[in-house]
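Section: Multi-chain targets

For targets with more than one molecule, the full set of components is provided together so that the structure can be written out for the assembly as a whole rather than chain by chain. Components appear in the order listed by the source. The example entry contains two components.
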Amino acid sequence: MPHPNDPKLRSFIPVDPSSDFPIQNLPYGVFSARGRTPRVGVAIGDYVLDLCELEQDGRFAFAEIGVFSQASLNPFMALGPKMWSKTRARISELLRYDHPELRDDEGLRKLVLVPIGEVKLHMPFAVSGYTDFYSSKEHATNVGVMFRGKDNALQPNWLHMPIGYNGRASTVVVSGTRVKRPRGQLKPPSAEAPHFGPCKRLDFELEMGVVVGQASKMGEMLSEQQAEEMIFGFVILNDWSARDIQQWEYVPLGPFQAKAFATSISPWVVTREALEPFRLHGPAQQPEPLAYLRQAQPNNYAMELDVSLRASQMNAAQTICRTNFKYMYWSSVQQLVHHASSGCAMNVGDLLGSGTISGPEKHQRGSLLEISWNGSEPVTLDGGVTRTFLEDGDSLVMRGWCQGDGYRVGFGEVEGTIVKAE
Amino acid sequence: MPHPNDPKLRSFIPVDPSSDFPIQNLPYGVFSARGRTPRVGVAIGDYVLDLCELEQDGRFAFAEIGVFSQASLNPFMALGPKMWSKTRARISELLRYDHPELRDDEGLRKLVLVPIGEVKLHMPFAVSGYTDFYSSKEHATNVGVMFRGKDNALQPNWLHMPIGYNGRASTVVVSGTRVKRPRGQLKPPSAEAPHFGPCKRLDFELEMGVVVGQASKMGEMLSEQQAEEMIFGFVILNDWSARDIQQWEYVPLGPFQAKAFATSISPWVVTREALEPFRLHGPAQQPEPLAYLRQAQPNNYAMELDVSLRASQMNAAQTICRTNFKYMYWSSVQQLVHHASSGCAMNVGDLLGSGTISGPEKHQRGSLLEISWNGSEPVTLDGGVTRTFLEDGDSLVMRGWCQGDGYRVGFGEVEGTIVKAE
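Its structure, encoded as tokens over all components, is:
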């Protein structure tokens, strides 16, 4: 049987070369359609394959477990990496051009293939814990130069470990969820005392999210290989940030309400296995990391990312950032190894944000903080619209894909529109 | 019917005046005994009342729901504050001296009253999110003086809001769970680069934990009253801390692995209602808090707290801290209001640590960092044992109680013993 990543594979379902969802991808999500309860599906071209119906029809060896009738990927993820591979191979087989089982069964096709325009997409998994890292050297440097000057841009610990903090899991939402402008304590440098009101410096952060699919035990560390095998897949993640709330609250315990109001993720979880052909080495790490963080494998991925913004008065969205996941200094595997290094237990459904993904070039900056250089260089958009930070009515879209030869393994998009504080 | 808090109430079960669990308390926990599955119970004197058996026997009006057969308080908490009150009143009635229903039914008594020495206590609820505050002015001042000197002890934001950060929910464990000394990156001031190894400055933090029993919606703020009504109860909490890991990692995003390896809580959740007689005003807040944080009610509690330490070579534990919850500058209600102020959704099962509870006197310091003044003033214990920070084999016990007239509403204890890093 051909490997599901084989670039020559084709599905009996027509898939445009520009589609995010060819047979080499097969990302998992949770959807509802046709009045049925939310369940697990896989995107293929312009369709969603209903795994719940396939499971109930006995098309999977583990059908009795019923993992695909759930409104969350967690029970499926809990089955572990061997079952993830087997299942993906089976789905690939069912969708292959040269496999008649589904292709030639019109009744089954009608039952299990739902046009993607007819489905409502839900949160793909229950977020157990949400952790946000800070692992782009370009981003950390930009922020450091802005706030501390060139000579002290990177904090002394930054090159020694993936710096991160615990975020708020309760407000991780799926693409399309509207984001209410948060209120909070604001203290402009000139003010004597803070006041409470709507955030004035609302920002996005372009990130990837790692979806952890296996648990680790309290008190145990992880090797590179163990961490790798615990990663189920990736989503695009927008770590919405209230810069003015953050500025006043973050000393000495880090961001709290500035990041707690919303974090948006894309609805399709692209599996680690589907990204395998796009692996590459990250930037050289100097000084060499401590032994527990060293990598024997290339753990970065070549993944194109872009961000576009559409103000309410604009006819179309306009790209404001184009960058690549490959620039990340600390890899997702290193983040996970570090996360468990104190003995911290990891759970099925943990979500790890990569940190803002900026690149070396100016057009590769992954936040408005950097794009507008802390508000000092407004960006001009179509029709004379200018922005330093986000305004009410702005819609922000992030997209990501790995480009193969004649196909792309894509993530779809994560969209969020800002609504005004009450 | 007398109110369950009536100090004159007595149970037909004999309860010593020094017991933590008189009929005025009725704290909830999850226990197993006699080979039965874990279920919800209430502590009364030297017994645990099995609510699962009572529920199955039809002794509660909502018996059909089956909330007490779960291994977690979350389903019961989700029923809301009116049902919490009703249930407590019903349990009080069942245990009253002058109510024959259980008192005179020997068969039922044997079924539902389990000697407390025969039970195994479990985590009382599933922790949805764990947030740790920093709300004792004395503690924040002590730490500030140590690290920044007297003139800059309190950070500028501290008097304006309850400073807090998201902690790690996956490693909140119940009293009695052994705590493995964490490993992590350590960089003594004299070293050029960090190394990885066992923490050398392992500490405890004496805290109370608020157990949130009701959810709030994303995008919505809370009033003082709404926040108050969402609080189900309180536990004692030990926020184990690796000071040396923290020192190196915490800039600029706050504590991460330094606090992620373990947080211990007491097994009995004392309800907010049981603490009602012990309410009092906290310290005067100057400057006056912003409007959203102002309090119309006294939201602090007079609650005695002590910490004792027993090194493996000692015959008995020795008290190293005696303090009171009443000193807290920011109340639990203010913490919860602030937590939701950006629109952050709160969930059933959220746990909010108060922050280390220190008092104005030297013997009221709630951490070894303060007791040993950052290691410079070792504490001498019985038999010539000295400590700056915790050593392998040390057992730490925290206890807490509200003293009534002839009875006390107590929390039991939270114990943890340090085991060596592998």
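Chain A has two domains: 28-122, 130-419.
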